[in-house]
Structure formats: C-alpha cells, structure tokens
C-alpha cells in the first residue's frame, strides 16, 4: 500500500512539473504582450527611448493614470495606447466601442480610446510641468494602436487621425511617410538642436524615474504588469528573500531552475541601493541567493480582481517600481 502511495505522489509531482504551470496557464497576458510587442517595434521603427507601463500621478483625482507606452524621439513625445481588441467592432450612440466575438453571447464595451489617450497625454504633460519641464507647443501627441489582426473594423477612413488600425500598423517602415512618422514635429523647436537635446535629456531623466507598474516576465514570452505583493514558500526560502524590497531592489533574474523542483534554484538579484536625494540609483550590486524553485511570487495583475501565484520555475525576471 505504501508503495502505491509513494508512486502516486511521484506521479503527481511529475504531472505538475510537466503540465501544471501555476496561474501561467490561467492568466490572460495577451494584452500586456501586445503592449510589449508594439513598444519593441516602435523603437525599431523610430529609435528614441520607450517607457512601458507608467503610472503617472493625476493631481486632479489623486490617483495614478496608467499609460501603456511613452515614446521619446528627437523633437517629440508620443503617448501611445495599445488596444488589443478582437471581434466585430461597432460604436454605439454614446461613443463607446463595442466588440462582439463569435460564439459569445455578451459583447464587450469600452470607453472611446481616443478620449482616454488625449486625457493621458494631458495628465502626463501636467506631471512633467510639475517636475520642471514645460514642453513646446505641439511637442506631445497621442495615438491609439489596434495591433490585433482579429479585429474587424468599420471603414478605417472614418477613424480619427489618432487611430492606427492593424493594416496601417503592419505596413509601417522606418522613415516612411506615414500616419505614424507624421508625428515628428521638430519644427516646433525652431530648428534649435541644443534646445531639442536639452528637452529630451530632461524628459528621459524624469520618465526613467517615474512610477511604473511592477513587471513579471514569464516563460513562454509572457509579460504581466501589476503589483508584487510577497514571496511564499518554506520559511528559510522566504527569509533568504527578505531583502527584496522596493527600497533596495529594482530587478531580479532567475538564473537556474533545477529539474522537477527537487533541488534549490539559483536566484540572482540586482540590488539597487536607491538614494532618494538624487534622481535615480546611486549604486548597484549583484547578489545571489539559493531558494527552492517551488517558492511562489504573489502578484496582483493590473485590472484584475484576483491575486495570482507564480512559481519561480515559471519566472524569468521581475522588475519593481521605486
């Protein structure tokens, strides 16, 4: 009997290792993956610096405003909203976007994304002003990108100029005269290269230290934005990870994961000794700790009501906001 029980436990452990992936299989990370895919392509197309998952304080409401992507290039700052909508799109009388998917009885309603993007641009501009950067007129713009090929839209010609539909998006090329490359407005700076460089340096300094969502990178090229809560597992493992705090750590990377989770994983952590008297970090130091691969990361995904658990064996890296 004990042999059968032992064999059953071994089989169960093997089954979980090969087929059970914590909440990874359950998480709808496609929206976040779309944001990262768009961000990477934008940087390839236009260069500059890209900032993902910002949480900009809104002075009017007192709550942070989420911004998918901010692109800073020579002579321009672009606020970009990525909407990974799919299905048949229509717009109701109130201006909401309605997506209906085949086989689903309920349609999804979304606020007008252009209005949302314009609001985000306004909040970001106010935030920059509070931090000492006043942008020249016309320097900031906003766009809404619809990257999902499974979205069936009405005539694209009826879209506002801020909308970049899928077919337009995939046709963009570096330096092409397109809707997207038409963002460049360096003329607003009067052609003064020194002023342009100064504005960009200030923007990059501020945006690189602006609040962001915490970020999980999972195996299978999946990303999740949200908030890191804690580690759970054996007491000695949680104790070994006690120094991973926002005040110290900006990023951790999983270096090695043992087979079947039977031996410790090697977890390499970047300690970022933040000095809040200056902009950014004052020193960094790599340190390593060994913990079991079954140790869990407790994470609250953005716009989700349920807290998720991810084994370290499923995680590639985690980035924490200051």
TrEMBL record:
Residues 1-17 form the signal peptide. Residues 30-147 form the NERD domain. It comes from Senna tora. This is Plasma membrane isoform 1. Pfam families: NERD (PF08378). The keyword Membrane does not apply. Keywords: Signal. The keyword Mitochondrion does not apply.
């Amino acid at each position: 009997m004990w042999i059968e029980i032992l064999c059953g436990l071994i089989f169960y452990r093997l089954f979980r290792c090969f087929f059970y992936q914590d909440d990874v299989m359950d998480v709808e990370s496609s929206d976040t993956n779309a944001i990262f895919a768009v961000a990477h392509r934008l940087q390839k197309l236009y260069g500059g610096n890209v900032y993902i998952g910002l949480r900009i304080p809104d002075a009017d409401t007192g709550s942070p405003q989420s911004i998918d992507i901010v692109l800073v290039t020579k002579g321009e700052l672009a606020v970009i909203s990525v909407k990974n909508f799919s299905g048949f799109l229509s717009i109701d009388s109130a201006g909401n976007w309605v997506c209906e998917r085949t086989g689903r009885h309920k349609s999804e309603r979304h606020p007008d994304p252009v209005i949302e993007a314009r609001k985000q641009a306004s909040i970001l501009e106010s935030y920059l002003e509070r931090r000492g950067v006043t942008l020249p007129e016309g320097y900031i713009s906003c766009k809404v990108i619809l990257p999902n090929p499974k979205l069936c839209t009405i005539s694209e010609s009826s879209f506002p100029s801020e909308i970049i539909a899928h077919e337009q998006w995939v046709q963009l090329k570096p330096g092409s005269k397109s809707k997207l490359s038409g963002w460049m407005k360096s003329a607003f700076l009067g052609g003064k290269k020194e002023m342009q460089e100064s504005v960009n340096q200030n923007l990059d300094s501020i945006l690189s230290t602006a609040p962001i969502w915490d970020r999980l990178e999972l195996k299978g090229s999946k990303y999740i934005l949200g908030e890191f809560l804690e580690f759970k597992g054996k007491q000695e493992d949680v104790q070994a990870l006690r120094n991973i705090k926002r005040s110290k750590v900006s990023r951790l990377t999983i270096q090695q994961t043992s087979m079947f989770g039977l031996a410790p994983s090697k977890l390499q952590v970047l300690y970022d000794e933040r000095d809040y008297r200056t902009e950014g970090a004052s020193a960094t130091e790599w340190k390593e700790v060994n913990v079991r691969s079954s140790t869990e990361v407790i994470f609250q995904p953005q716009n989700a009501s349920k807290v998720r658990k991810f084994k370290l064996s499923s995680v590639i890296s985690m980035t924490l906001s200051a």
